[in-house]
Design a protein that fits this description.
Blueprint: H1 2-19, E1 24-26, E2 33-36, H2 38-41, H3 61-67, H4 69-76, H5 83-86, E3 87-88
Antiparallel strand pairs: 1-2, 2-3
Helix pairs in contact: 3-4
This protein binds heme C (HEC) (3 copies).
Length: 89
């Protein structure tokens, strides 16, 4: 049983790694586009951003600022925190 569970997690983790792009780009409105290097964030642990199974996260200003990106960078004092550090024209 224990082995079966470990195997299951391995499959889920592999499927996740196989289907996520290395990097995503968001439009970011008038401030300019935002690049999200997904691969570089994976070491933080999937659950930091994905609730339950890793799947698509709908991005918008609320999520980008108050739920994920800016919130975490400020809390951890790591990663870009200034507007133009994230938004590029
Ligand atoms: C720092 C936040 C963050 C972490 C940590 C993270 N992800 Fe993601 N992941 C995202 C975001 C945001 C997207 C959505 C990209 C998009 O579609 O715009 C995404 C997309 C994905 C997708 C693609 C979903 C789809 O249908 O397009 C997969 C699969 C995925 N992540 C797996 C993982 C796995 C596995 C881990 C852990 C090893 C992980 N992610 C860690 C933020 C994160
Ligand atoms: C759970 C915390 C967390 C979340 C959520 C998160 N980040 Fe980060 N981000 C980090 C950390 C920690 C670093 C620094 C990584 C390092 O130094 O290795 C970082 C670094 C970065 C970098 C710089 C990478 C480099 O190569 O220098 C960019 C760009 C970035 N994040 C964009 C984003 C965007 C866009 C989002 C939202 C989609 C996001 N991050 C969400 C923690 C997070
Ligand atoms: C850590 C990265 C990060 C930082 C820092 C950041 N943003 Fe964003 N911002 C995002 C992400 C991600 C989105 C969502 C982009 C999307 O959905 O196209 C966003 C969305 C926005 C939008 C909405 C765009 C639209 O029309 O949908 C505006 C406006 C904006 N940011 C302005 C700012 C300003 C002003 C600052 C500085 C005070 C700032 N941002 C700092 C990542 C960041």
């Amino acid at each position: 049983m224990k082995k079966a569970i470990i195997a299951m997690f391995a499959v889920v983790a592999f499927a996740g790694a196989a289907f996520a792009a290395d990097s995503y780009e968001y439009k970011g409105g008038a401030m300019g586009k935002v690049t999200f290097p997904h691969k570089a964030h994976m070491k933080l642990g999937c659950a930091k951003c994905h609730e339950g199974a890793p799947k698509k996260i709908e991005m918008n200003k609320e999520v980008g600022h108050n739920k994920l990106c800016v919130k975490c960078h400020k809390a951890e004092k790591k990663g870009p925190q200034g507007c133009k550090d994230c938004h590029k024209k």
